[in-house]
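Dear colleagues,

For the upcoming journal club I promised to circulate an example of a predicted protein-ligand complex. I picked one with zinc ion because it came up in last month's discussion. The inputs are reproduced below in full, followed by the predicted structure.
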Amino acid sequence: MNQKMLEKYADVLVKVGVNVQEGDSIQLHSDTESLPLAREIVRLCWRYGAKNVITKISDNDMALAKYDEAKEESLGFFPSFEADYREAMLKEKYHRIFISSPSLDLFADVDQKKIETVQRAALVATQHLDKYMDAGDIKWVGGACPTVRWAKELFPELSEDEALQKLWDTVFKICRVDAKDPVAAWKAHDEVLKLREKWLDEQSFAYLRYEGPGTDLTVYLADQHKWIGGSSDTPDGISYMANIPTEELFTTPHALKVDGTVRSTKPLSVMGKIVEDFGFTFKDGVVVDYEAKKNKEVLDALLGIDEGAKRLGEVALVPDSSPVSRSEILFKTTLYDENASCHFALGSAYAEAVKDGAKLTEEQRIALGSNKSMIHIDFMVGGPELDITGVKKDGTKVPVLSAGEWAFTV
Ligand code: ZN
Ligand code: ZN
């Protein structure tokens, strides 16, 4: 990978992603594997006039060391001052950049109970902080950094150097970094997503019908649901792109009105493990049955986190011909795979995905059908055999996706 392209990629994350403005304060989360990208991001944040930049660096080997060596009580320990520190930063409106190399199945050999203990401790200690993000005035972006470990997982037949180069080239293409003017390319892409957003909002569907191999599902949408594609806006009108890449249109399902079965179409990397070939059965919005061919215990842990973890918090549409899908690569990380496929999320809904959501209280959003949980985990259900039909309140049926592709033009 050449330095110039790395700088261009960092620029996409900083300018299109979090869209740093003069005087912004920024917190960057990175792992040690992503440091070359992290350094460029920090440089650009300062260049664009950030007031302050704080970095938080994690390391996979150190995380593993904790699982290997730490005493039981230390696994469940999350210092309260850490939550206070995060809260102070949210109050000061630190905008957030997350970059990482995908964890893949990094924790494959770690006892699932230990992972659950560590993650639950952090979730419980920080759940009161969700309201700061729900207010919509903190910008954020997530992006991924190619590494040899990730590249060899995707292209095992290539040498380390070749695999890494191929992954960088793929990421640059998917993230439009190879465009002559990446910022302009993202603006054009955003405009198309916004047209689809407008069309979907105008339909005001009561529910969506999903039909595909192993999938027969009815998903009602929350009252006053709002579709979102591409950029989000802060109350001050500064737009930012929370995921790079992003190809999806998403909204809020009704947490109490989901019925039928749904089959995953891609593996899911979560909690450092990879769950394969799985499916859920819903009744009145709740998961009543589920199975997985590999790592079912991860689903046990996820669904057991809290009541909301058993319900849907996001429905997202992605055509099968999205650039991520066309790469024909299974990235084994949600940030990429969710942009190749229609997906749902178990757990919390986004405040912005109901009308004027940032201005409503949590109770008001819940009354509209919005789900609340400590988790938000996307899983992929799209593919070339999926049909989605929108049904309006008066019973009118409108094809939305047909054989995996958009069934409407804008
Ligand atoms: Zn999504
Ligand atoms: Zn999601």
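Two points we might discuss: The first helix runs from residue 3 to 17. The pocket of zinc ion (ligand 2) is lined by residues 314, 345, 376, 378 (CB under 6 Å).

See you all on Thursday,
B. R.
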